[in-house]
Amino acid sequence: MKVSNKESRRENSAYRQLERRLERAMALQAALTLFEWDNETLAPKQAGEYTAKVQGTLSEAYQEIMTGKEVRELLEACKREAGLTEAESAIVREASEELDKLEKIPPREYRAYQELAARSARVWSEAKEKQDFETFAPTLKEIISYQKKFAAYQAKEGQKLYDVMLDNYEKGFSMEKLDEFFGLLKEELVPFLKKVTNSGVEIRDDFLTGDYPAKKQRELAEYLAEYVGFDFRRGVLAESAHPFTTNLHNHDVRLTTHYKEQVDSSLFSVIHEAGHGIYELDIEDELTQTLIGQGASMGMHESQSRFFENIIGRNGAFWTPVYKKLQELFPEQLEKVSREDFVRAVNKVQPGLIRTEADELTYSLHVLVRYELEKMLIEEDLDVEKLPKLWADKYEEYLGVRPQNPAEGVLQDIHWAQGSFGYFPSYALGSAFAAQMYHYMKENIDFDGLLQKGQIEVIREALRRHIHRFGKMRESRRLLQDMTGEDFKPQYYVQYLKEKYGELYQIQE
Ligand code: ZN
User: Fold this and answer.
1) Which of 71, 97, 129 is the last residue of a domain?
2) What confidence tens digit (pLDDT) does each residue in 77-96 have?
3) Closest listed residue to residue 147, CA positions, set 135, 162, 128
4) Which CATH number do you get for residue 319?
5) 295-323 pLDDT tens trace
6) In the 8-state DSSP scheme, what is residue 419?
7) Helix residue ranges, H only, 3-104
C-alpha cells in the first residue's frame, strides 16, 4: 500500500498516539453499551448484581485510560499540533471535555454520588409505587445538592449552575435562550390548546385499542422500520419494557419497542426509534467508533426521532401507500375504518398527566412544567417539599388537568432521581428543530407528494446530507443553521402546530 508523505510523517504524531489510546477507551465503551442493551432485553433477572461488577470494572478501566497521564499529555500535544482535520480537532475537543468532567470532581465524592444515585433510583421507584413523595424528598434533596456541587466545579467564571447543567445536554442553549423558547410556547400554545379542547370537534379513536395480537404488531413494526429506511442488515429490533435505541457503531444499531393493546402506541414508538437508529446508521465511517461517532446532542437526536414519528409518520400523506398494509394485518379492527379516520385518530389531542403518553400538541407543555421547576430548584433554591403542589398547579394552568397523586405527577419520570437536571428541555428543543427542518424542506421539495409516492428515501437523504453524517463533529445549532440558512427559530414550531391542529379542530385564528 502506498502511503503518502503526509500520512507517513504523521504516523507517530501526537494525534495518532492519542487515537490508539482512545480506540481502547471506545472498545470499553462498546462493551458497556452491549451490557446495557443486554440488561434491558435478554439478560436473566438474577444476573443484575453479578453483571454490575463486570460493568464496574470496565467503567473503571475506561476512566483510567481517559484520565491517565498519557492521554492528558497527548491531548496537550495535540492542541499544539498543526494540520488536524475538522474531525480530528473535534475528537480532541471531546476528549478534553470528557477529561475535564472526570477530573474536576474529587474521586471520593464521585463514588459517594454513584452510590447515592443507585439508591435514589430504588427509593424513587418505591415512592412512586406507594404514591408517596415524602419518602423520596430527602433523597432528592441530596441528589440536588450533589448536582449543584458538581456543576460548581465545572462552571466557568460567572456561569450559572443551571446553565452548566444545560450545557451537558445541549450546547448553545442556555437559560437566556430557553426562557425565550419556553416563553413563546407558553404564550402561544397554552391559549391555543384551550381553543382546541373547547372546539367541540370530537375525534373517534376507539378502534385503536383492542385485541391487536403481538405477533402481528411485530410484523408491522419490522415492516414500518424498514419502510422508513432502517437497514436490518446493520440493525436489529427487540422488545423491552421502555423502547430505546442504542448503537455499537454504524454497522450495529439496535432498536427496541413494546407491544401494547393500543396499536398506535407501539406503531409510533417504533417509527420514533427508527428515526434515532437511522441517524446512527448514517454517521460517516470516518467518525464511527470515535468520540464523535454519535448524534450531535440530545436535542438533535430527539429532533430526528420526532421528525420520523410526527412529521413523517403522523402526516396523512404517509399513510396513502401504507394504510392498506395495516388493514391487511388487522382486518377485524380496521377494515371498516377509513384512512382519513385513522389519521385523525392518531392525531387526536388529549391533554393528560403523563409526559410519555402525550400527543404532539401538548408534549412540549409537559416539558415546560419541568423546565420551570428545574430552574427554581437549581437557581432559586426551591424547597423540594413544595414540588408536588407546584407541579399540580402548573399542570392545571397549562394543560387543564390536575394529578390526584404524585405517581401521576412529580414522581412520574426517573430523570431527577438519576440527577439528570437539564435533560428535559432537549425533548422540546428536538421537536422545534424538527419543525424548522420541515419548514425548510417544504420550500425545496414536494414533501407530501414524496410521502404519497412512498419515496421517503429522498427526505431521508436530505437529513443524512445536512445532519446525520456529521455525527457529533459539529454542534446542533450550527447544523441547523447550515441546513436551513437560519439560526434556531422556534416560531416555526408554533406555526407548524397551529396550522396542523387548527385545521384538524377547525379553529379560526
Ligand atoms: Zn427519543
Assistant:
1) 129
2) 999 988 899 999 999 999 99
3) 162
4) 1.10.1370.30
5) 999 999 999 999 999 999 999 999 999 99
6) T
7) 5-9, 14-41, 48-67, 69-80, 86-104
pLDDT of residue 110: 83
Q: Does the residue 158 lie in any domain?
A: no
Stated as kind and residue range, the H or E segment containing 331 is helix 331-334
Compute, in angstroms, the gap from residue 19 CA to the centroid of ligand 1. 31
Task: Clarify whether residues 124 and 186 are in a common domain.
Answer: no
| pTM reported for the whole predicted model | 0.94
pLDDT of residue 175: 98
Q: How many domains does the chain have?
A: 2
Among the listed residues 245, 240, 234, 275, the one whose alpha carbon sits nearest the alpha carbon of residue 257:
240
β 245-249/252-257 pair status: antiparallel
Q: What are phi and psi of 253, to 5 degrees?
A: -120, 130
Q: Mention every residue, 6+ apart, whose C-beta is less than 8 A from residue 107.
A: none
The catalytic residues are 273
Helix ranges (DSSP H) in 131-232: 137-154, 161-169, 175-197, 214-227
pLDDT given for residue 82 in this prediction = 86
Q: How many other C-beta atoms are found inside a 10 Å radius of the C-beta of residue 285?
A: 11
How remote is the CA of residue 256 from the centroid of ligand 1, in Å?
11
pLDDT at 2: 43
330/208 Cα distance (integer angstroms): 11
Q: Which three cell numbers stand for residue 87?
A: 474531525
How far is 15 from 394, CA to CA, in rounded Å?
51
Same domain, 222 and 125: no
Same domain, 359 and 225: yes
Predicted local confidence at residue 49, as pLDDT = 77
- If you measure from the C-alpha of residue 273 to the centroid of ligand 1, how many angstroms do you get, rounded to a whole number? 6
What 69-75 contacts at long range (C-beta under 8 Å, 24+ apart), as own/partner pairs, is 70/21, 71/18, 71/21, 71/22, 71/95, 71/99, 72/99, 74/14, 74/15, 74/17, 74/18, 74/21, 75/18, 75/99
Question: Is 328 inside any structural domain?
Answer: yes
Query: CA 139 to CA 417: how far, in whole Å?
Result: 8
Neighbours of 46 (CB within 10 A): 8
Does residue 138 sit within a domain?
no
Q: Is residue 276 part of a domain?
A: yes
Which residues, given as ranges, of the chain have pLDDT below 50? Answer: 1-5, 8-9
Nearest-angstrom CA–CA distance, 147 and 143: 6
Cβ–Cβ < 8 Å for 107, 64: no
| CA 270 to centroid of ligand 1, rounded, Å | 10
Enclosing domain of residue 185: 175-504
Tell me the pairing of strands 252-257 and 235-239. parallel
Ligand 1 center from residue 244 Cα (angstroms): 7
Angle, helix 363-379 to helix 175-197, in steps of 10 degrees: 140
The Cα–Cα gap between 175 and 167 comes to 10
